[in-house]
Specification:
The protein has about 575 residues and is α/β, with parallel strands linked by helices. It is about 60% helix and about 5% strand. It is built from 28 helices and seven strands. About 0% of the residues have low confidence.
Amino acid sequence: MNKKSVLYLILILIGATLLRLWNLDKPEGMWNDEYLTWKIASARFPVEFFEALKTNCHAPLHYLYLKLWMFIFHDSDKFLRLSSVVPGVLGIAVMFFASLEFRKKDNINTALTTAFLCAISSFLIYFSQEIRIYSLAFFITSLVLLYALKIFNSPSKKNFILYSIFCLLLILTHTIGFVFVFFSTAALWVFAVPQKKGKDFLLFSILGVIILALPFIPLIANILFRNNYFSQWWAPFNLSRTLFLFTDVFSPVLNDTFHIFNKFSDAFYKNGSVNLGYFIFAVIPTIISFICFIRGVLNPKKIHGYMLSVLVCTILTVLIAAMAGKVVFTTKYLVEIIPVFILLVSEGFNSFDSKGFKISIATVYIVISLFYITVMETSAVKLIRTEGQRLPVVAIQNDFGLKKNDKIIFLYYPNEWFYKYVDFKNPNSEPFLKGTNITKYNFEYYLAGADRDTILKEGSSFLQPVFASKENKFFNSRLKNDVFNNLKSGDRLFIVDLRSVSFFPPEVVNTVANDTSIYKTVPLLYLAMSYIKSCTLEKANKELVYVGEKNTGAWNIYVFQKPDLG
């Protein structure tokens, strides 16, 4: 590798770092999944830490990494997000060297293309700014891929051992990372190590991974096989949505990451109008990338067979699991395939003979991608996390002037999930500590007096007649005892609602619940939280005087006041 190539790589890494640092300190704060990640990583080690892990759906390594990060640095939002920037950038460098291994001859252009595509990938940029596992998973998957390709070129004990170590780290980072590891190892067995000696060493290396992973198997098994209907309660499987995988990976538009559209066709045409912007920014880059991808896989070499086998088998396995209702088919859960996709696109692009053609499609792709990233408000670096938990705290404390005797009802998230942004030195912040919670974790009890075990056994059918009823006397009684009876004349009541999960009007909830065929297709989450919102507001309007409301991000804050009965 010459000095010119090193300089290009350094420039790419600098550009990637700047994109990931741009707007890193999000004014809206952490959203739900980020908060949970921080909360688990903050738990006291080891007992409380592993107890907290049991309630989550991901393996422990990222939480351990984040705990160490917070010990060395700080747990401010900016520093927490920086913990994802570092592996995100390092992963780009690893992908450069993986590409060198993939194409031993005339490989520097392919390697630089790979690094550049990773640098401007909106998917990778977004998760390099989020306090979640996915940036670290990308970095470790890149290392798994690097040493898998090294085994093709040099099946040495060193490469087998390092490959196995990184496979173990991936399994301990992403709960379904074992799917990628399994198919990667199987494909290596078939394509890379025909000699018996090599097969034996690969077998012993993987057995070592299994042995080292044994202490964590009960934890991962609990996550994968526990009886929990919540795996699909917010996003039922829809075959057409799987196409968003390709637009999320190959274009700057992140539809699947934010579940903007229910069906793929809605992205093009909805409410009688054609979405030209989606065609330009999502479809054109995807078509260009897919052409290069097809070119990249149309090669009879065994190394290409390995890559394609891992890609197809991993996607099909997650697809089948999603159809069975075990996982949600979404791009971030398939983060392990991103390095394979990008490397094959780079390979295909550089395999074209026509220099003019390559310049043309590269120019179109780069201009569209960078324009969207730097200009559009919905880009990976500019997109506001509308569920950020700082937003309602700031509105209640600053815009409404929260008073000590005020009361708050939190719908969807518990009150303690907002504590990171509450100034408890101010005595007027006390209502946050005493807030009433009607959340996705206890809504069954408030709606029907049932516990979670009952719901898990009987499924969503248990709640169908509840949603079909226009009046819920049990719910009203609970509200009266927990909230309205505790209000005195002049006290205000704040109802904090997340409208991104409670957008159904009461009549829609009732209609859906009275039609079983429709009821089975609608996410339970949206029905439950919409029903709770309408019941709560209806009760507040009967008992109190409406003062006003404020919308901030995805939050609605409704304000009522206890009238002076004297």
